[in-house]
Amino acid sequence: MKILLVVALALAFGAAVIWAADFEPGFVLLQYGSWSLETSLVVFSAAFILLLVAAYLLLRSLVLVKQSPGKLAHWKENQRHKRANRALTRGLITLEEGRWAEAERILIRHAGNSETPLLHYLAGARAAQKQNAADRRDNYLRLAHETTEGADIAVGVVQAELQISAGQKEQALATLQHLRDMAPKHPYVLQLLQSLYQDMDQWQDVQSVLPDLRKRHVLENNEVQALSLDAAVGQLEAALQRQDWRKMEDVWHKAPARQRQTEAMLKLYVEGLVRQGEIEEALKLIEQFLRKDWSDALVYQYGRLEQGDLLKRLALAEKWLKHHRDNPWLLLTLGRLAKANALWTKAEEYLAQSLRHGPRGETYQVLAEVQTAQGKPDNAAETYKSGLDLMLDQAGSTIR
User: Fold this and answer.
1) What distances in angstroms separate CA 230 from CA 154, 235, 353, one per listed residue?
2) Contact (Cβ atoms closer than 8 angstroms) between residue 316 and residue 347
3) 35-39 and 28-32 strand pairing
4) Helix (H, G, I), strand (E, B), or coil: what is residue 39?
5) Distance between CA atoms of residues 27 and 118, nearest Å
6) I want to staple 94 with a disulfide (CB 3.0 to 4.6 A). Which of 103, 120, 160, 237 is the partner?
7) DSSP class of residue 77?
8) Measured distance CA(300)–CA(362) in Å, rounded
9) What letter does residue 255 receive in the DSSP assignment?
10) Cα(283)–Cα(302) distance, rounded to whole angstroms?
């Protein structure tokens, strides 16, 4: 439509010029020294317009010739960028297909011509990692850092992920700690740190990142609470293994009250108290817990401690039978406490019930000791044999 309008205007202009020439051609005289030129106004006007058009075209041609090398270079650069973009797509597809060496070759070959070399080098680093080529991986990560300004965190996160995947925990920890110094509030860096600390059993460090994880809403409150409990339990286990009683007390007293009332934490703390000879405190904590909750592990520990007012403890444990009549652990504890009070008949009855609800080699041993104390050597020998058969059968099942 636009071209038709231009053609129509040109025809109208031409017709107007012809009409003017026919109506009044006019006269133009140009003289310079001895040189002169005479022509009609219409011819002069047409020649002048043609001269202007020719001058314009000449100037445009000169400009195009001058700009040609730059435009050609720009065109070539665009073509290289297009090839690099196609190579990036093809390389990522190849990487996902599991052809690591081919993906690495495609990605790195075109990285220098890409508008986004960072993506080429990061994907190339992943391909190298899959081939266990740590040196090439680290070189690509270095190039990614050098070729893209402001990508320190992104490159560092990928580096840490690849180091963790390769089992290089110490290197990954150093990388993540450096990233945390650079960006203390970065949620994913905090999450990776927490996961790595947990994997390395560095529970005190896990506790140190929990407040930030909560503030940045990286984890839900219930997840933070569960992780906080795991961290406290982990620190207690470590302190127990090292027999670091001061550390154990420090962890216990710093823990919230709700954590100290959990079976996982109380079981370890009670074990620590027993090893230190703090039997009365251990018994007191177990009894407080069992008034509100139940734990087979703590009931078992309660029966192994033969200190304190044994008759009173037996009477208390018998009250727990109301809600746990068929519990083999409670029945074993009752048998032990009755044995400690020299109540042989009652002890034998409780231990026999425990065996009916959950036979264990340890229960057979305690029952045999009770029968021996009662002057029943034949029964004791048979009980020992039954316990030994049970343990051998269990050991055989484990091996198989």
Assistant:
1) 30, 9, 36
2) no
3) antiparallel
4) strand
5) 73
6) 103
7) H
8) 11
9) S
10) 7
